[in-house]
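# nightly structure sweep
# worker-07 picked up a monomer target from the shared queue
# config: single-sequence mode, recycle default, output format = structure tokens
# input follows
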Amino acid sequence: MPQPARREKAWMTTPILTTKLYIPQPRPHLVVREQLLAQLDEGLAGKLTLVSAPAGFGKTTLVAAWVDRLDRPVTWLSLDEGDSDLNRFLTYLVTALQALAPGVGLGLPATLNTPQPPPIDAALTGLINELSALPQASLLVLDDYHNLDSVMVDQALGFLVEHLPPQLHLVITTREDPPLPLARLRARRQLSELRLADLRFAPHETTHFLNQVMGLQLTTAQIEALDGRTEGWIAGLQLAALSLQRQSDSAAFIHTFSGSHHFVLDYLVSEVLEGQPAEVQRFLLHTAILDRLCGPLCDALLPELNGAGQATLAALEAANLFIVPLDNERRWYRYHHLFADLLRQRLGQKAADLPAELHRRASRWHEENGLEIAAFHHAAAANDFASAERLIEGGGMPLHFRGGVAPVLHWLASLPPERLDEYPSLWTAYASVLLVTGQEAAVEPTLAAAEAALAPLPANATTNDLRGRVAAIRSTLAATRQQIPALISHSQQALALLKPANLAFRTSTNWKLGYAFQLQGDHQAARQAYNEVVGTGQITGNVIFTAMALLGLGTMAHEDGDLRRAKQHFSESLT
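# output follows
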């Protein structure tokens, strides 16, 4: 398989977790599923291949083994809940596509981050046109699409699928069918599907897996009994095999082994865990809170490892203990999703207070290593309000403007009002996120709640700054409604209250003020506001607002007949 090209990332505001872009490496001694691989090959004639089945049926493993033998460029994106944020999803999507065509879609996330972004269909049209110039047939895999819960992402992907150029084939793995135009694609013979019935192990595959891959010596009757009880469920077979490796009486174990998938998994996790040394059990339980694991992170959660975290992960992989490598260097791993869920359940049963402490440790490690969205996720899980508030603040650029919309909104929406009252900055963040996600009707009540929480507090630089944010958000509401006098009034109030160091809010507010004055024909006042934007933009590196301010300055210079200055501003907006 050709190596992916270098990805361009200079334009991004969303930090990129590169492990989400790695293609999982096929494990040695896997069961080769030639019939399914052939079906995947046949599906390349259409637009979309959908691999849809419950957890534990080997969807990702199958697709990874298939793309490993393809003779066309492949790019891969593993999806998680945070990708429900449309801008973050598109940022990762564009980054993945740059493995196929360097430079493709460079302006898309920046376009959508503007105060008044274009309709998503219009924004995606340029990306689709660029993809139509791909020099050869290529493949994009979106893994674990079921993790997403976003109508906007579904609509964007639906538009992309409908207009996908013939050079690009899309593969989606998921536990449930996505809300895409599947019936229409099926009718046009543009859809290839692999489902639970296809993915179950056939009897000969079960035999090979148990006796060859897992090293057991079961009779045909024992294999048939176990296959009948698991119904070809690969995760159940693997757990059964791990348990059988420690059973002195295989026949008795198989005879008593029965139940639903969840019951079987729960039972066998108990068997597998209890068969491990105490230190391995402790490692598995304590690190189960993590979506992704690496040695130093595990060391932070378990100081007694004394730096042995990476070696422990390698040992778990060698023991086939439901751990999946996420990169070629075997630095990052994750647990099988079902295994992780049940480990977390067991952890909570053993020590109710321990998960919160582990999340706090994980949050500190991620923050120290520049992974602020993951740090916030763990701080929120720990109910560490002080850390979560600090991470949302983001040192001048709020987290929800850097790819954190979905987790921030989900957490804030889960909190009772009395908890938000204790942290008024969370009310203002909540209002801002609601506005970003298009929930305008809920913004003003949230701002009123912020003002009520601030009312009993003394006026100082911090509380005034929060009141300034309330005014700034109201100015954005006024802008969306084309209420120019209100926009100017709220913007001026915001600038009078915001801290000088709050460059993120000051920059956006000055741009709105300049835009309003420009609409009114007050070029002098507009220039003053736009020049403020350019000045702070150069400090913060906010290229979007800087470019828009320069375009405004250029437009006014052109209207004033100053063509030399207009050319200068327009040229600067492109650099």
